[in-house]
Please model this.
Amino acid sequence: MITLQDCQHRDAMDPLRSLRDLFHIPSGIIYLDGNSLGAMPKAAITRANAVVLQEWGNGLVRSWNSAGWFDLPQRLGNQIAPLIGAGADQVVVTDSTSINLYKVLSAALAIAAQDAPQRRVVLSERSNFPTDLYIAEGLCQEHGYTLQLVESQDILQALNTKVAVLLLTHVNYRTGAMHDMPGLTAAAHQAGALTVWDLAHSAGAVPIDLCASRADYAIGCGYKYLNGGPGAPAFVWVDPQHAERFRQPLSGWWGHAAPFAFTPDYQPAAGIQRYLCGTQPIVSLSLLEIGLDAFAAAEPLGGMAALRTKSLALTDLFIELVEHRCAGFGLGLATPRAHSQRGSQVCLTRELTPGDSGAFAIMQALIARGVIGDYRAGDKRTLHDILRFGFTPLYLGYEEVWNAVEHLRLVLSTEEWKKPEFAPRNAVT
Amino acid sequence: MITLQDCQHRDAMDPLRSLRDLFHIPSGIIYLDGNSLGAMPKAAITRANAVVLQEWGNGLVRSWNSAGWFDLPQRLGNQIAPLIGAGADQVVVTDSTSINLYKVLSAALAIAAQDAPQRRVVLSERSNFPTDLYIAEGLCQEHGYTLQLVESQDILQALNTKVAVLLLTHVNYRTGAMHDMPGLTAAAHQAGALTVWDLAHSAGAVPIDLCASRADYAIGCGYKYLNGGPGAPAFVWVDPQHAERFRQPLSGWWGHAAPFAFTPDYQPAAGIQRYLCGTQPIVSLSLLEIGLDAFAAAEPLGGMAALRTKSLALTDLFIELVEHRCAGFGLGLATPRAHSQRGSQVCLTRELTPGDSGAFAIMQALIARGVIGDYRAGDKRTLHDILRFGFTPLYLGYEEVWNAVEHLRLVLSTEEWKKPEFAPRNAVT
Model:
């Protein structure tokens, strides 16, 4: 069996170990929630001070030019591009993931309406990230489409002549299961549908090649594995062959062909620039650059391939340790064992019967011990709650995985989670 | 005539003078562009550090609860409400002004389509802020409406039985002219139209009473007179009688009735909360709170009424000094002299004939001297360029107005602006 010493040895041998020093990990914390909000790079403090005091305070409105604010969406897009297999000047950072989904799904539906008006279905996964389904539901209602939700294993079969757009999140937020992006994109195209990929739970965590996958549209999040800070703006990519066919409906000044001409009529900018809309939150936007710098630092150490290798080693280790050291406590595994189907998180299940699975309390007890993951409630369909653990290879080590599992074992074996202070309440989790 | 000593005396007597100490005004700078980007409150540095290091760095994902991130849109909305005559829990801060306009104009058109389907016109002002017109143009095309643009003086006459929505910016960005919000709203209602007011150039600068004006929808900007920092998120207000009649189309998780239930179907939240969409940029959002704190500090000194009195005194002084001390240099006045029609900015004109008015170079020369305003290019219709000067009564003094005009006089009288380094180029201004 794996020992603590084995884990320490793996840390000592880890070629990416130095990257951890770029991040601020609070003392006593094992942070397994980078899939919800990435940890803070230490340089974010310096950058925040520079943007606020130097750029805003001293530069004032001049900083639109002198500090390069106006170029930020494109500059950050170009930093993200190599992480997702996009070309230069094909990505911009702007707005939120939900709003960017509205833009790209609107554009995809406009193409579908022109090229294949008989196709009236947007196909997605029932357990897709809810906000994606909300945006899709709204657009479908507005444009007379049906939002068809199927289970993951039924997607291929559902790709029929009625489907206009296949909308999927690459890595599932509840299970950590990863879709086969090239395979599903090819199947969608074969069936005559366009694809929209949400990379919120995969960009920066797993290698992605949008161009090689021949994807049509992609969006993603700046504050999870990209470590851009709470609510950092999101990104959007569009296959260049589609980018200029339609304008997206959020036609604000920053997406105008001549944003400072102040003409009363809208002329969309060329390429991906037309996916910009209004003025962006410059301070939050600037901090994302620091998060992306960590990936530049990882490049000489092997880049995304090395990060992926470590991510799989961390999640393999966590699964193995949980299954051995926490056996008999009613935990199951929601995340696929196959590497090709796993993102960078591990989700454990607890059965809902006889009602309360205890998962909420277990997570509260873990957090009280400094092991931060999160909890996702189950429903009648899944019959289990989820304990969710994200593994960011930029800053996590193997000994931390050992210690996290040891805390989990103690929470379960001593029934610590049954203490009243960990009982479910109406908390935001 | 007014003298420098008079201006110094007015500063000494200014009951709001202490508020200037809340702001960081760089040495040697007279900042007359707070209508584009407000100056930095000194406390923004401390707040940025706290949000980045304490809330993000140490609190990590727990800060959604422990640092109150989840309540920020509503909490900031309640800080803005008294500045615009809105009730408690009627305003949220979120997204950009352009995106919020998309939401409210969509909702207004949905009401109009149901209540008065024969009305197919959105009426606005030709010189409305361009990004507002771009958003309106897109929605009109999508929903089969005509965007009718008229001159300011023709609005009342154009309010006929075809008009569904009157969309106006309260204070014009190019001229500083302020509309009569209660009067135009009453006229629009009389004609059977709904009103959407953009308060970007008036919130925090002039007293506004949305409820007393019986306005229907309003949006506004966080980074101009509210001093929230570059690209700070925007705000949105909806008359409570309309708020729940329709959902706005950007249906993201934060506007859901139960945002943490993760249900696959969208149920809009009650009231103004449904105007939220995706995750907000928390660092930028948090800094807006500091900007709004300055208005709380102004409250015991007379609040918005006192700020308005000072704003009018500052703009009166600027107009008077320019007209006396810069006479004969081809400057005109684009801003109304009548207090009831003036926002908190003064716009000077330079004739375009014989092509280049020199306004760009004049502004560059002023900026080189530390007097920061901005330049807006003219067109065939206006036949003049604009030199734009914003006056934020929270931090500007009378002596600064004197000195700004003195710099302008020197730039003009010595023809300093004709130096090659100030010549027009393809700069972002």
